[in-house]
Write a structure and sequence with these properties.
By secondary structure, this protein is an alpha+beta fold. It has 4 domains: 3-174, Rossmann fold, CATH 3.40.50; 201-253; 319-415, no CATH class; 438-508, no CATH class. It has helices at residues 25-32, 51-58, 94-107, 147-158, 176-185, 201-220, 232-239, 242-250, 255-276, 289-299, 302-316, 319-327, 351-363, 439-452, 464-473, 491-508, and strands spanning 3-4, 41-45, 62-66, 79-85, 108-115, 128-130, 133-135, 141-142, 163-166, 169-173, 333-335, 338-342, 372-376, 381-386, 400-405, 410-415, 476-479, 482-485. The protein is globular and about 75 Å long.
Length: 509
Amino acid sequence: MVAQFPEAPEIERHRAAMVRTDISKPVRLAMESAIFKQDNTFFDYGCGHGGDVQRLRQQGYTSAGWDPYYQPENPLICADIVNLGYIINVIENPAERREALLKAWKLTKKVLIVAAQVLIDNRRDEQIAYGDGIVTRRNTFQKYYGQEELKSYIDQVLGVESIPVALGIYFVFRDPIQAENFRASRFHTRITTPRILLKTKRFEDYQELLSPLMAFITERGRLPYKDELLEATELLTEFGNFRRAFQVILQVTNQVEWDRIADQRRQDILVYLALAQFSQRPKLRNLDDTFRNDVKALFGSYKQACAAADLMLVSVGDSELIAKCCRQSRIGKILPTALYVHVSVIEALNPLLRLYEGCASRTIGRMDGATLVKFHTELPKISYLFYPNFDQEAHPALHTSMQIDLRDLQVTYLDYDLFTNPPILHRKETFVTPDYPLYEKFAKLTRQEENWGLLDETNSIGTREGWENRLLEYCAELRGHRLYWRKDADPYRVKVLRAASNRRSKQRC
């Protein structure tokens, strides 16, 4: 139980400031999301010891900060990017909390980053209830928000819809067009340009001139409109128009691959527009020219694109259809009650599954570091699973899971880090696609484990202890992603097991 404090304690807010050894997570996510440009200015409102300010300066950004305790003499400066990182959760006075958010927003020219604690995974009996939060053992205050509660609070105070990017981390844009560009970019699949299959003198003569056009079509799934391609002047002088230039490209590449790119871009737009309906789908004027041209070329009109997105959204509400998509998925590991996929393959999934996952990640935000996504087939739920050593360990242990119930957006968060017998993974190649860098390494180990009989009777090997017992029983040991016979094992036992392994290997050939 959390004890009730009989009288107001003296909160020491400054003790909540952390001494960091790297850029904080909210600022790091902003940099990874490409909202930082080299000429952007940065201001950290409530900068504490100033770690983010110093590190961004070292990277060449114009950076400053202010803190009421550690750097109170510093001026409050307007900046393109303003960070309010883990501030509103340590202010015990609701009026001051609101004032801090509004002041940070007033300083923001382009994007405000807001971060706050959203989960309690370490509450202890000695913590003291105070106001709408708790007093910690360090005599600091902590207000733990629910993810949706935090979003509603930011939106209500600022009068602008915030965008979740991770648990407890939101971006708030001044310009609605920039906000929509950012939202759309999160559903833009990475695609490689089709390979050159043939050699023709005409293409080779103009390859350097045609390369920007190939890159544009790969990026947008369509031919450019006038003035969209910076390198267009010489190209148009030579070919007259983009369509004729593209015909030269088609002579040495596969038309089917370009059609797939166009189809993928249509799916990207549909997923974005479908999810936008959960808040307020943007008006056409709030979309930039490039996106409008995408819609015109790929759908004919914005109205037609929205109608197609609405049909897709209706399909997402059909739990039987989602379960069928999971069972029929050619990507991922399907079990009786769920489909498991690596986060790297989300973009390659059936569009309905991408949209289904987007319902969770867009509203709540993916768990930081999530390795696998679990699509529950019996209930409308999505789980994010974190295996910190997925690539390095042959059978990595589950560290953390976050389950989102899509019926009420309730979040269940479990930490397995202290478990002595955590769940582990087998057959890692099944979670990824063949183009994953370590796919063949994973698959080779699985084939070896199958030949040795280690993956039979799967009910007993789902945990670390169960797997270690199986290895011991079969006189096996793992070194990296390869099996070896134990040197201390009974020689006759190894001989019998080796013969059985050879028989299985021959049967599979």
